[in-house]
Design goal:
By secondary structure, the protein is an alpha/beta fold. Helix content is 27%, strand content 26%. The protein has a single domain, classed as Fe-S hydro-lyase, tartrate dehydratase beta-type, catalytic domain (fumarase, Alpha-Beta Barrel), CATH 3.20.130.10. Strands 2-3-4-5-7 form a five-stranded mixed β-barrel. α1 links the parallel β1 and β2. The two termini are 23 Å apart.
Length: 185
């Protein structure tokens, strides 16, 4: 396992160098979206409409941050359960999404889709939302403002810690960890 510093948006070359279990620190722009925003984007794509943002090469963080306290950029910003986004993931990968950040594993179908599309899925610590918010340097709503905390935002990250869960080679840290645990004696 390697420890790497990555600049967002991710390049194809950067993605090829990542492997399941690698620790990464992400810096740069990332979009946020949860269930409701994902549903709207997929419905727009199905109608042949343009998305409110260009997903090509971008990363989505599955988060619905809490409001900022005075003097802070954002409140707690921990990841939400990624599996809830599985029904929407393949159309967004088809639209050019390069990576996603969330909590927990993905279904085998979605893990395979990340591999097929040359995309990455990162896991962030779900219990550390207040600490993770320290790595967010700016935030602005960019779409679906009516969704409140689920509105799409553009965040700028600075050394945001994640682990590579699904890489482009078919690795899956959750699946492989379970197998290792079951066979440990």
């Amino acid at each position: 396992m390697a420890e790497v510093e990555l600049q967002l948006p991710l390049t194809e070359d950067a993605v090829r160098q990542l492997h399941t279990g690698d620790y990464a620190y992400l810096s740069g722009p990332v979009y946020t979206a949860r269930d409701a925003a994902h549903k709207r984007m997929v419905e727009a794509l199905a109608r042949g409409e343009q998305l409110p943002i260009d997903l090509r090469g971008q990363t989505i963080y599955y988060v619905g941050p809490t409001p900022a306290k005075p003097g802070h950029v954002i409140g707690s910003a921990g990841p939400t359960t990624s599996e809830r986004m599985d029904p929407f993931t393949i159309p967004l990968l088809d639209a050019g999404l390069r990576a996603a950040i969330g909590k927990g594993g993905r279904s085998p179908e979605i893990a395979a889709a990340f591999k097929e599309h040359g995309a990455e899925y990162f896991i962030a610590d779900g219990g550390a939302g207040a600490l993770l918010s320290r790595q967010i340097k700016s935030v602005e709503v960019v779409a679906y403002e009516d969704l409140g905390t689920e509105a799409m935002r553009l965040m700028v990250l600075d050394r945001f810690p994640v682990v590579v869960c699904n890489d482009i080679y078919g690795g899956d840290v959750v699946r492989d960890g379970r197998l290792e645990w079951r066979t440990a004696g």
